[in-house]
Amino acid sequence: MGKNKKGGPKQNVFKVAGAKSLKKTKAKAVNLGLKNIKQKVVDIDKQFVEINKNPTPRKDSKSEVKMPEKKQEKNVTKEEVANAAEKIVKMDL
Where does the record place the region Disordered (predicted)? Predict the structure, then answer.
């Protein structure tokens, strides 16, 4: 590293005792984190390749198409219609 040419209040902040080692430890932690992430990505890629090479057979369970059930219409006789009409007339609407 070169000599710090800055002087006065703009001096290197990391000149404080222990700050330089703190900076290094932070950098190491970041690097370790990146390595862990990269390793996880590599592991996931390996799993993906294995799955592509040996796909598990999928059970084709075709769901049967069911038609909606139609409600059966009740056969209404003329007598029932007449009785209903008489009841309506009696109600005095």
Answer: 53-79
**Per residue in 41-77, pLDDT tens?**
889 999 888 888 887 777 766 778 888 888 777 788 8
Q: Are 76 and 84 in contact (CB under 8 A)?
A: no
**What is the pTM assigned to this prediction?**
0.33
Q: Report the C-alpha gap between 20 and 1 in whole angstroms.
A: 13
C-alpha separations of 35 from 25, 28, 39, 40, 84 in Å: 15, 10, 6, 9, 84
Domain boundaries of the chain, sorted by first residue: 15-55
Q: What is the distance, to the nearest Å, from the Cα of residue 82 to the centroid of all Cα atoms in its chain?
A: 62
The whole-angstrom separation of Cα 63 and Cα 51 is 26
Helices and strands (DSSP H and E) totals, the chain: 2, 0
The CA-to-CA distance between both ends of the chain, in Å, stands at 104
